[in-house]
Amino acid sequence: MRLRRHPPSAARRPQVAFTLLELMLAVTLFGLVLTAIYSTWTAILRTARVGNDVAANAQRARIAARTIEDALVSAVMFQANAPLYTFHADTSGDFAALSLVSRLPPAFPGGGYFGDLAVRRVEFSVEAAPDGTNDLILRQLPLLQSEQADPSTRAIVLARDVRQFSLEFLGRPGQVAGMRSDEWLREWPLTNALPWVVRFSLAFGGGRDRWGRPAERTVRTVLLPAQMVPGASSLGSAPVVPMPGAPPTNAPPPGAPPVVPAPGGRPVN
Fold first, then answer.
1. What are the residues facing 125 on neighbouring strands?
2. Which candidate, 21, 26, 96, 135, has a CA 20 to 30 Å from the CA of 48?
3. Contact 48/201 with Cβ under 8 angstroms?
4. pTM confidence score
């Protein structure tokens, strides 16, 4: 007679489960994985933010520098109306300020407000912003309205968070008494004459080098092609200087009949 073996009952079978130590180890590993993912994601966001800030600063510097350069290269000054065409440069404060008259191109910022009035007084200044930073402000008005209009109108913020705006000037030989022709001037003493060369510096953001200066600066050197136009030329009638031995410009050519004045009118041939 054989004895039949019965499998052990379910009540006697050992229970399979995780211990508390294994659970704690799994939670710790999961936390480390999440920490690594979060650190990688924050590093990506930080890098993208820094890259966007650098690109924005470079774009602001390019636009601001191009605007100032366009205003300088198109500067005009006429002797006949010299008080309207004065050139002012204030470099006594922390930031420079510039005011001049220019014949501006159509693509100049804010040109759509003025239509065909290309000759305008342009002013660049740095002013405090509501958030505590400094903004580079552009103001422009038509030439004949620049003395009566409110200076707060037509203000355009060219750049924000400005840390430096400085100007230097180089005069033509003999233009400024007592100065060498190769000496850069911190201040331009002549309001009724344009400098020969202007060098300006712009800096944005909070980065600084070991000397405390802005880490990233935009420096442009601009040659002003314009000079003061003499009074007769600015009125549209430049004097005619005859050549030695040449007949007057209004004299009839040789062999021509004499000029007979018309009654009550101009002489006719």
1. 137
2. 135
3. no
4. 0.65
Length of the chain: 269
Residue 238: the pLDDT is 43
What pLDDT is recorded for position 15? 63
For residue 124, count other CB atoms closer than 10 A to its CB: 24
Quick one: pLDDT at residue 247?
A: 47
3-state secondary structure the chain: CCCCCCCCCCCCCCCCCCCHHHHHHHHHHHHHHHHHHHHHHHHHHHHHHHHHHHHHHHHHHHHHHHHHHHHHHCECCECCCHHHHCCEEECCCCCCEEEEEEECCCCCCCHHHCCCCCEEEEEEEEEECCCCCEEEEEEEEEHHHCCCCCCCCCEEEEECCEEEEEEEEECCCCCCCCCCCCCCECCCCCCCCCCCEEEEEEEECCCECCCCCECCEEEEEEECCCCCECHHHHCCCCCCCCCCCCCCCCCCCCCCCCCEECCCCCEEC
The residue to which tokens 């000037």 are assigned? 169
Sorted by where each begins, the domain ranges of the chain are 55-232
Distance CA 225, CA 75 (A): 8
pLDDT at res. 239:
46
Rounded to whole angstroms, how far apart are CA atoms 224 and 198?
A: 7
Tokens for 96, please give them.
């420079």
In the chain the first and final C-alpha atoms are separated, in Å, by 161
